[in-house]
Specification:
Layout (H helix, E strand, L loop, with lengths): L1 H22 L7 H28 L12 H28 L10 H25 L1 H9 L1 H24 L3 H28 L2 H27 L10
Helix pairs in contact: 1-4, 1-5, 2-3, 2-4, 3-4, 3-6, 3-7, 4-5, 4-6, 5-6, 6-7
Amino acid sequence: MKYLVLILLAILPVFLIAAYIYKKDTEKEPNFLLFMLFTFGVISAILVIIVNIIMETTIPFFRKDFSNMNPLELFVYILIGIGLIEEGVKWLISKLIGFKSKHFDQPYDIIVYTTYIALGFACFENILYVFEYGIQTAILRALTSIPGHACFGIVMGYYLLLAKLAIINSKKKAYYKNLLLSFGIPLLFHTIYDYFLFLGNIILIFILVIAFIIFLFKSNKKLKEIASLSSKLLKSTK
């Protein structure tokens, strides 16, 4: 019974956010595609674990106890050892599968794709943490980590959409700029988020929770606008 409660607490916030994103899609994506993207998100979490093991084995810096690091070392550790790897793997999957999908025929589609990949990642990661640390961790991560990954996914999808529109309008410079931003902005947000979290200051964690609430509230209007955009915007890519 205990493990059932833990797994429900681990996955419930993931599926609530997935339902929220899915509901806004005016023309629903194929279930098999959403399942595949979510699954690849889970696989990306496993790949990150493997990469982290390799880095810890080969690079002494990443074997250090982060609690003994100075602020600059901690920032570099989080930027490269966590943010760069996690967002990099999710970005590659988003670009190679979501961005190039034949079903990407509406502006909102790519936001669904990137968010589902991010939530697949968050789901696997959350299960590991909740099973190891218990209910308190489940509650804390439901308010911080899960919304955080969703926010990173939404931002990634938004800039990939701009990159797609740049291709349609034959604007190569804008395409590469937005492609870079689709990776760089989530990486920056992720690094700042983890940096605050690793500092362990309750006030900073509270600020994170408020920031995610504000972001989701503010993005609601933007997501509605994107979801209502005509599919004609992407017709020329077919």
